[in-house]
Amino acid sequence: MLKNKTALVTGSTSGIGLGIAKALARQGANVMLNGFGNVEAAQAEVAAFGTRVSYHGADMSQPEQIEAMMAAAASEFGRVDILVNNAGIQHVANIEEFPLERWNAIIAINLSSTFHTTRLALPAMKEANWGRIINVASVHGLVGSAGKAAYVAAKHGVVGLTKVTALETATSGVTCNAICPGWVLTPLVQQQVDAKAAAQGISNEQATRQLLGEKEPSMQFTTPEELGELAVFFCSPAGNNVRGVAWNMDGGWTAQ
Ligand code: NAD
């Protein structure tokens, strides 16, 4: 379905980004990866689907590096047809103790990078009259949790930016939507499970059950594969007029 299309997925060396990159490659898309994880392993996993895979190591907190990455994608593949804004970090602390440097980094990586990639990708998408912008927000783009001020502010910002992008492209073949996962067991969440286990002197399994039990009625993690298939749906013809949604895949978290 996505043969001859190119997807750029930020933060795709692990977790959700890698899951989405693989799902798009399975549909035939060429992929440019980005992120600071195990690049060779991620490239090999995506290349297994037989499409072209490349990598750019831009730091999503640095607008000039984002510009270089978008230019590299354009010169290597002609154009970015599918932009998946996924790179993200987390820091948990109450507002009074929140380190300024972490606040600035989370806003830059989780929110501002999406503005930069979007503004740089839109001209070619509009010219081609086809494009998909998929912003990986979070349930924290829809509801708050104590201790996550920067993350919740950034993700609510991503949901807002998604709506504006969808409105500014509404009469074109370009769509923009957000995905709002609940808990997904990736390195980002494993760190939170480990911190909980250490703080309370409980096992990893108990900490995992507690984490899910506090928020997620299904008591199940959403998987990167499931999120990848939602991204594929947004790229399909059935997604042509799906615009500006914040689609939760959260085991019932935000239904409560
Ligand atoms: P992850 O830690 O596995 O992946 C994050 C990716 O971002 C990695 O490839 C990492 O190298 C990259 N990254 C981090 N800082 C970067 C920077 N400055 N520049 C470029 N790349 C950078 O985590 P994940 O859980 O897969 O998270 C992916 C996205 O999904 C994030 O935006 C996160 O907020 C969101 N999300 C995750 C969950 C969850 O439960 N795991 C839930 C909702 C939303």
Low-pLDDT parts are none
Secondary-structure-derived class: alpha/beta
* Ligands: nicotinamide-adenine-dinucleotide
Specify the helix fraction band: 40-55%
Provide the residue-averaged pLDDT.
Answer: 97
Number of domains: 2
Q: Which superfamily, in CATH terms, is the homologous superfamily of the largest domain?
A: NAD(P)-binding Rossmann-like Domain
Rg over CA atoms, rounded to whole Å, is: 18 Å
> Helix count, per DSSP?
8
The biggest sheet amounts to:
7 strands, parallel
How many distinct beta strands?
Answer: 7
CATH architecture of the largest domain: 3-Layer(aba) Sandwich
Q: What string gives the helices and strands in order?
A: EHEHEHEHEHEHHHE
Estimated share of beta-strand residues: 5-15%
Keywords:
256 residues, single chain, seven-stranded parallel beta sheet, alpha/beta, NAD(P)-bd_dom_sf, SDR, 8 helices, 3-hydroxybutyrate dehydrogenase, binds nicotinamide-adenine-dinucleotide, 48% helix, 3-hydroxybutyrate dehydrogenase activity, Rossmann fold, 3-OHbutyrate_DH, globular, 2 domains
Element layout with pairings:
Elements: E1 6-9, H1 15-26, E2 30-34, H2 39-47, E3 53-56, H3 63-77, E4 82-85, H4 100-128, E5 131-136, H5 149-168, E6 174-181, H6 187-200, H7 204-215, H8 224-235, E7 246-249
Parallel strand pairs: 1-2, 1-4, 2-3, 4-5, 5-6, 6-7
The structure holds nicotinamide-adenine-dinucleotide (NAD).
